[in-house]
Design goal:
four-stranded antiparallel sheet; 5 helices; 6 strands; about 45% helix
Length: about 140
């Protein structure tokens, strides 16, 4: 299956596109970004969503690459998620995509702090730039603040 470019139709997204990574290339993609730490990153994403969304108990995740060099794992789910982040008093509903962006930012922050590799720091900022133009940007930033 070839990668499918998805041009988001929301306002403010004239330049930043995301592309779905084919299922059979997801693990290789993450390994290329994190090497032996790819499972650490993936596990952090899952753990953060489990910690902040009581209804999450696993699921199928997709990997998206961003035209600015960023990427993120997104939970494939068809219902809004109730998210609660006790340390900053955030409580709200988010789409699975928006919640996924939030937990990916947490996980990227963790791995960037742990390994201090510039590419991981850049990945955080690239995803944050995408979050700024996401239709649920206000919720994402309230969640990660």
């Amino acid at each position: 299956m070839a990668a499918a470019e998805i041009i988001e139709k929301f306002e403010g997204n004239d330049h930043l596109k995301r592309t779905l990574c084919p299922d059979n290339e997801e693990m290789e993609f993450l390994y290329q970004r994190f090497g032996k730490h790819s499972m650490y990153f993936e596990g952090r994403v899952y753990r953060y969503l489990r910690a902040y969304c009581s209804s999450y108990n696993g699921g199928h995740w997709l990997v998206y690459t961003l035209s600015n060099g960023g990427f993120y794992m997104s939970l494939r789910h068809d219902k809004m998620l109730d998210i609660e982040q006790p340390s900053n008093f955030y409580q709200g509903k988010m789409s699975p995509d928006a919640a996924s962006i939030g937990v990916n930012l947490y996980a990227l922050g963790d791995i960037a702090n742990k390994l201090e590799i510039e590419a991981h720091i850049d990945a955080y900022h690239h995803l944050r730039d995408y979050a700024k133009i996401h239709p649920e940007s206000a919720e994402i930033f309230r969640f990660i603040d």
